[in-house]
Fold each of these.
Amino acid sequence: MNPYSLLAFLQVQASNLPERKIANMFRPLASPGESEKQVALLTFAITGAIFVVVGGLIVYTIARFRSRPGDDLRQEPPQVYGSNQIEVAWTIIPILIVFVLIGVTARVVAGVQNASPPKTTTHVTVIGHQWWWEVQYPDYGITTANEVHIPFSLDGAQATYFMLQSMDVAHSFWVPQLSGKTDVIPNRDNYLWMNPKAAGYYYGNCAEYCGTQHANMQIRLVAEPPEDFKKWTLNQQTKANEASEAAQDKAVFLSLSCVNCHMVQGTTAIGKFGPDLTHLMSRREIGGGVIENNRKNLRAWVNDPQGIKPGCLMPSLKLTDRELDQVVAYLETLK
């Protein structure tokens, strides 16, 4: 077994990818994040040195020129007027510091944004909605939601290029350990790329206030070995796996207004306003990352989405218990 396969096996054995819930931007695991970390450390070092120098001078001045016993309190202190040398120094030095920071930042930004795509590149289109993410893979004909699957490689040769769009208001796409924030603006295409160097579930969020459920507009990015990513794409390209015994449950689902907002490929459900449900049960979470995807939570979500995510655009259909059970039973077949 070659080193790549061995490490990939250790990291994702039994398809149990490690979860990186603490999104520490100072522990980057992709090239853009590493570049941005270096700029941040340089900035902290320079501003920290300025803080120490200025703070030290203030403390020295307080200690050196403090009032002492025996001083004549009526005597005015000696008046010291400006020094041309000092004035020039504290004007030129800050200007030089600002230009250094601007130059380094511009170089890193240009290096990240103008980087040439490697030979192995995955293209993903992410569309922000209030309050969930639509994820499209134009090269594979796949549409899913909230959970972004991309390949990774130890040497960073597997890169993913994102086109970012918004369906409604301004959002911001941010997975801290992989790349910086990129705004998602209506009527404008923005771009970013990342090349994860370790497998796992990476947690991110919308970083631009976009409404009442902004904090619950979460991102789950799954970086996996190329062979596992290929298996995932093949599964997503198939029609929903519908059990024959679920025909009656399917008929109930298709008779409801769910089909006006959601799509299930291979059926008459062709809605575009809500997440594509074709492989709903392949996702770990629902509601834009608010709750775990299991039968209990799925039933509660379908029954009263406003009770779980107030303000979301999914209404309660006021289903009977029987209808609710049938809809949930059908959704559970969509794997």
Amino acid sequence: MRLSIEVYTRNVLACRDFYIRHLNFVVKYEVDGFVVLQSSQNAGYELMFCIPESPFVNKVFHPEFSGYGVILQVEVTNVEMDYEKFLSHNIPIVVPLVKEAVNGYHFTIRDPANMLIDLVQF
């Protein structure tokens, strides 16, 4: 199974660069205003970013992502190392590194589309 998430944002290029630089994604496909990224560690995981009001998609998809109600959770093998990496790259931390019974050992950042990303080690 392949899982794709598509986010509508005016920051398509910033999102592309963010996920390539910080989360090991690669460009699978790109045209003006749209990019498909694929995890370099699991080809079944893709992220897509598209400009709002794109002429290539149905109008129901036109509204821009508002930054609320969605969290992208990424399981990592060494959350402390990743936490230090994000700090060293001056990526703002929304939720500092914490151990929780239900949510594991994790911290949270935001991407350029304003989506929350929770990096967790179980």
Amino acid sequence: MPIYGNWRGIEHPASGFPPPVDAFDAACMRHDFCTASPGSDQPCDLAFVGELHDIAARVGYLPRQLQWAEYLIRVKAGGPAGGMPMPSPGDAFGLLSSIATPCW
């Protein structure tokens, strides 16, 4: 189920190692490789969210698909107990609107 580029999505990519389409997709690829290694995913999740924000600060935006992926990773990482702030209620509304609104 692709969400963004060649690397963001459940079981995506299905096979092979396609090149990332941009810096965001490269961050997704690094996150996938990191979480595939043994151990906790929390350090990988923290690094991924930090990298997304760094790239977004450089280019001036964070793609909508990655905004809600970040939301889900924050929830998965356990919020403050996992070292990552929980999403605010406004983030949840943004998630719902991004799912309900087509991206084209």
